[in-house]
């Protein structure tokens, strides 16, 4: 039960999990929980339509949907302000645009180029 609690807490913070479809793996590489337990828990969540499964090359990708988010919030007694990282938008820090006059001063002066570096050429 404690492992299930920590797994559900991790799932609601991330929103997605990748599981290798091999029951003989002793532990999941990120969670330190037996891989078989994670597979069976996700199978249960999938049958209740709380996660969507995508399968590719012996790996299962489980994506938490809106019903699953509500279920995990209720199960873990979390406030509605907690939501998965897959639903949050990342802010992109971009450098402010510079004026042409200012940026021209920052550029290095133009040289003669590689063609003029040859010794016999003037």
TrEMBL record:
Residues 1-15 form the signal peptide. One of its GO terms (molecular function) is structural constituent of ribosome. Its main location: cytoplasm. InterPro entries: Plectin_eS10_N, Ribosomal_eS10, WH-like_DNA-bd_sf. It is found in: Cytoplasm. Keywords: Cytoplasm, Ribonucleoprotein, Ribosomal protein, Signal. One of its GO terms (cellular component) is cytosolic small ribosomal subunit. Residues 11-90 form the Plectin/eS10 N-terminal domain. Belongs to the eukaryotic ribosomal protein eS10 family. This is Plectin/eS10 N-terminal domain-containing protein.
